[in-house]
Amino acid sequence: MAEARRRRKKKQQSEYFFDYSLLFIVLFLLGFGLIMIYSASSYEAYDTYGDAAFYMKKQLVANIIGLVGMIIIANIPYHFWERFAMLGYVVSMILIFLVKTPLGISSHGATRWIGIPHTGFNLQPAEVAKLCMILFLASLVCKMGKSVRTMKGFFIMMGAPLPIAACVYLITDNLSSAIIIMGIAVLMVFVASPDYKKFVIMGLSVVAAAALLVFVVVQMGDKIGTFRLARIQAWLNPESQAQDKGFQTLQALYAIGSGGIWGKGLGQSMQKLSFLPEAQNDMIFSIICEELGLFGAVAIILMFIMLLWRMMVIANNAPDLFGAMLVVGVMGHIAIQAILNIAVVTNSIPNTGISLPFISYGGSSALFLLAEIGLVLSVARRIQLKEL
């Protein structure tokens, strides 16, 4: 009888556990993001819409909706979503194709959004695909079991996200999201099947292919005919295309360099005054560097490291494989996206449109990232307190 009471008490304790440290980090990043969106976009927003807080207000609405969704998802047992894994895969594919219908919305020369009638809200199918891919791959790993460690299992796991990634790239012309989807898959497969040899070979092959591509671009010189190859050339020598493909990169580097150690002060950026395109979106990290300096940039990077570390702890202590793989997928998504964004802003890799998680302006990104955090919190709630 005493043993039964002890087990019941233990179960009740684990049922009410909530990872407040993870929640605090997410809330901090969201709050900081709102401040930086207002700072980076106030000039353009007032000039275009007559309201300096236009972008910040829209992001605030998305964040509030996302936080409500996050709390709801966190209180639903995460195994509930496993039955929708295949449905999510199919729905994300359908949404991608809807971009080419009259529902598709174009902005800045790209058609990547779906307009939801009578709401004024635009949905980016690539964000849906990232979440659905995490759910689908986590479910697939559990169904395959030990066979995921075989060569056949490896190719099945790596082939599963290819149709979605290909559609994201070919239909919505969103290379960065396609890379993130494949990156999530690689990390989840690596965790499920830690065979270093296969991944070393794959990594070396990717590096060799990238080096070959850069060599070809250099040899072609002015004969480059495609937009993406021209971006590689601008990455190698942005000064040579200061008025064209290298303009945004150079302005971002000017912002980073002028910030110094401590920055010019919050709200004191010069590059946001119509010099730096997409200051509140993809390039918000450069405004952080300009206004808050190296100190602010390092602080934000440390916050992301703390967020990833907390998710790693949850993944290591997850009650089962499905929960662990969900957390690994979310961790991979946030890590890859943050690294790519900072690499683009600092010109470490060629320029490609990608937002900084929780901080850049973007309603769809905020909604689905918070949904993913909800899944992580749901897994954390099922962990025995003594295991933390």
TrEMBL record:
Compartmental location: Membrane
Segments traversing the membrane: 20-40, 60-78, 85-103, 123-142, 154-171, 177-192, 199-218, 283-309, 321-346, 358-380
Pfam families the record matches: FTSW_RODA_SPOVE
Keywords: Cell cycle, Cell division, Cell shape, Glycosyltransferase, Membrane, Peptidoglycan synthesis, Transferase, Transmembrane, Transmembrane helix
GO biological process, one term: peptidoglycan biosynthetic process
Purpose of the protein: Peptidoglycan polymerase that is essential for cell division.
Protein name: Probable peptidoglycan glycosyltransferase FtsW
